Amino acid sequence: MVTGMDGNGTAGVFLGIDVGSVATKLVAVAPTGRLLASACLETLGQPARQVMEGLAELGRQLREGPDTPRVLAVGTTGSGRNLAAALVGGDTVKNEITAHAVAALRFEPAVRTVLEIGGQDSKVILLRDGVVVDFAMNTVCAAGTGSFLDRQAARLGLDIRDFGTLAARSRRPVRIAGRCTVFAETDMIHKQQVGHPIEDIVAGLCRALVRNYLNNLGKGKDLAPPYVFQGGVAANAGMVAAFEEALGHPVVVPEHHALMGAYGAALLAQEEYLSKKARGGTASSRFRGFRLRELAYRTRAFDCKGCPNQCEIVEIFLDGRSVARWGGRCGRWETA
């Protein structure tokens, strides 16, 4: 089951930025919720540089110039959310759980379980009546993430984009030990050596990842439909089928499943913007513009000597001007 974004255009937009260890995603969203522009780049260990490149791409798509929509607010999320907010002039900073939950609710208001698998981590989020009541994250075991499938695809000499098609052809998926990448690889090689068809091995790998996900993240939790599957791995039809088989229910895959973290960040920025306006406060954004990559960017780190904690402080400079600091326990440098 697939859903899409709809709505009408607008003169103002909300930006969402999701900075992860593998990919950096950016979106521009109309107040109606319609996705107007997006960019997805590999983080490559350079989150600041990729955020600036992504902003340039959003500006190009939005036709920066006299007709460029005004940015009303910017939300950031992901492991690099604080860096992104300091760099671009973010207005709202939220964790990934909140961002993914808000995005899922926009597409499926009745959602009770969000399944999210990215390149380096995975999450399960439980909602009841639109409120997050429980969640779990896996940031340690690669066997429960998209990198697991990427690595196995490389070993099989396959394009990961073909996994879904191959898995759909399987008539007798093999059982592969999926709790550890080492065991999975050994088991998969053995299945190849004894002559199992490649489609049965691929389907078995999808089942193994789902089994590992449910055993690690879903164990002891009240998983209930409707289910929404988000993250880059949701593009894999084999994974969708494996989840539906294991859960015994349909799984909803949003059209822009890989961008849901960024999309949720944009919605949260919109929510805070509207709240400020309702209170009669200033709702202007701190956004620094789409052309950040034209500015000289650098960082420095130093140890604060103000107390025995000796906190490591990170400072960001744009065109020689300090724009943000963080890392201290007392907030001394952040407010300086």
Q: What would you say this structure looks like, in words?
A:
It is a single chain. With 336 residues, the protein is α/β, with parallel strands linked by helices. The longest helix is centred in the middle third of the chain and has 19 residues, at 198-216. The protein has helices spanning 47-61, 81-88, 96-107, 146-156, 163-169, 181-193, 198-216, 237-247, 260-278; strands at residues 2-3, 12-19, 23-29, 35-42, 70-77, 92-93, 113-117, 122-128, 131-138, 227-230, 251-254, 297-303, 312-318, 321-326. Helix 3 crosses helix 9 and helix 5 (163-169) packs across helix 8. The strands form three sheets. Strands 1-11-10-7-8-9 form a six-stranded mixed β-sheet, with helices on both faces. Strands 4-3-2-5-6 form a five-stranded mixed β-sheet.
Summed up, what is this model?
This protein is an alpha/beta fold and 336 residues long. The chain contains 9 helices and 14 strands. It is globular.
Compile the SSE list and pairings.
Elements: E1 2-3, E2 12-19, E3 23-29, E4 35-42, H1 47-61, E5 70-77, H2 81-88, E6 92-93, H3 96-107, E7 113-117, E8 122-128, E9 131-138, H4 146-156, H5 163-169, H6 181-193, H7 198-216, E10 227-230, H8 237-247, E11 251-254, H9 260-278, E12 297-303, E13 312-318, E14 321-326
Parallel strand pairs: 1-11, 2-5, 5-6, 7-10, 10-11
Antiparallel strand pairs: 2-3, 3-4, 7-8, 8-9, 12-13, 13-14
Helix pairs in contact: 1-2, 3-9, 4-7, 5-7, 5-8, 6-7, 7-8
